[in-house]
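Hey, can you fold this one?
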Amino acid sequence: MAIFFASVALLPIVLYLSLVTGGGGGFSAYLIIFLFTEILRITGGKLTAQEVFIIYFLMGAASGWVPFLDFVWRAYFMKSPITWRFKDPYTGLPIPLVAPSWWAPPLDSTFYKQPGGITALLHPDWLLPIALAILGWIFWYLIEISLSLLCAQLYIESERLPFPLATVDAQMIITLAERDPDRVRPFFIGGFIGVLWGLIAYTIPTLTSYVLYKPMIIVPLPWADLSSVIEKFLPGAALGISTTLSSYTIGFFLPTSLVLQMLIGSLGIYIIGNWITLTYFSSYFPRWRMEWTPGMPLNLIWERSYLWVWASFHVGFLLAVAIIPTLLRGKHVWQALKSISKLSESSKKAGYLPLPVILAMFFAGTVGSLIVFHIFVPDFPLWIAATFTIGWTFIFALASARALGTVGTGIPQPSVAPGSGNVGAFGLSIPYVWLGCVLFSGYQKPDIWFFHPYVGGDDAAGFCYIIKVAQLTKTKFIDYFKGLIIIFPLVWIMSLIYTGFFWSIAPIPSAAYPWTAASWPISLSLSNLWISRSLETFKPQIILGSFIGMSLIGFIGNLILGSTFSLIGLVTGTMTLPPISIGMIVGNLFGRLLARWLGKERWVRIRAPLVAGEACGEGIMIGIGVALVLIAKSMWSLQY
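Sure. Predicted structure:
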């Protein structure tokens, strides 16, 4: 019932929020859980911790996944004057003329003559693109879940990594289900803080943007940008103060040595590294030097420096962080593989699958993805595609899951996401590492930009985290994976209805949906820069050098500092912006002060429900603000 309500009632709120502000639906899970637990409490009923777990973790998919928005993006791609300015270097034709019909309706299709809406999305020329997107979801499910089960055996059952933030989610679930007084008090104190912060940072700007036609921004989100303050001394540096409370509260749960290593990695890359590459080594990175300008905001500094400087370094870092810990902990890996091959009764009851089944799922997804890719892009070297679909996806899943288990945050994999840039026929995000590989491969035909084999690993780490929370709440995680299958058709149906509804009210992008009007043209330009081969991002010599350098740091650090050294902490820091890493060290130090004041034992007991309450209160206020604006906006629902 709760899952159905999320898709029917919350998905339009989340979709509208993403169209207007670019925000997602992180609030929806908190809103639904709080609503249902309170209703049941008033009526004398009760949700178990296991039921709250299922509702909480399926909310994101049920209310936040909008696959049909990607098809609106493709229609915009085909007709936008921006796309027509770019030419495919292989054929010399404007890019819309080389876009294949299995990616978007051809330009002579009657689809482009009708107004946007549900009927337009059901045009016959969309049938093949929709079918390929559904097939992509099946491959995603097989690959990511199989890898998550493998990571869980490695990092949860064998190495027993702490997964520091899993405790926060588990405490929120248990508190809302059981209403234990020892947990409820810190939970509601945190909730009060979250409500106040959510009102100031989110609800007031959201409401005033509608009432006054201009948001009243009291707190700049997600950070206060200080880059222009230090650019006279450190040009190119990205510095700011985080204004999202989660950046600080995550520091409550991490060892100080780990947070310090993350801070070193972050400041070393985005302040010192950006400054050095812009000044002393600008001849090696001319595009970075050409694009940086005084006064550039932090988000653009991050994007451009990553694209022109750090993308290659991060590939080498990721390879090191996936391989070196595996070599140093070979005994744990071997024991984990043995335990998967011969599952105990307790593991079977928990939902773990035998190693042959996991491998069968993984190779069914990867090989299936490669076969379909080869059918539609037959001339691209299959061995390159296989290297990334099988090799990179596997390595990235291991690295990101280890990061979640150690430092509480996964490793970001910058990518072009559906609805915000050029995406392949599977309707899934395309990592920059794959786009760089395409350029490096020498393949010239344009079809490769519209279809890619599955390259991921991100969600496997997230699923591994969910398995840990399931363990803490005594829930069968297999029920969550079954739930994903159940909500899949519901999400597609509701996505069709609500995307069509908003598209019928006003064009997307347009002034009616400000975020799309501001961001889609920029994303479209970036997509066409890739297709027109105007970008050169990845440099093999830097990838190799950064891999060797970070591997040496890993071996030496482990030799000198032992267990206090964390290679994954250092590498995660190199992919974390300074506002976040600074917030984490501030939160860590503040947590240590609270531990002295309250007593270490008491602080350890209350910190998780305190942080969970803050997240819940903040999420509820975001939901209330968006819901009120959506109700007011529904007054003008005439079709454009």
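The CA atoms of residues 74 and 104 lie 6 Å apart. Let me know if you want another pass with a different chain boundary.
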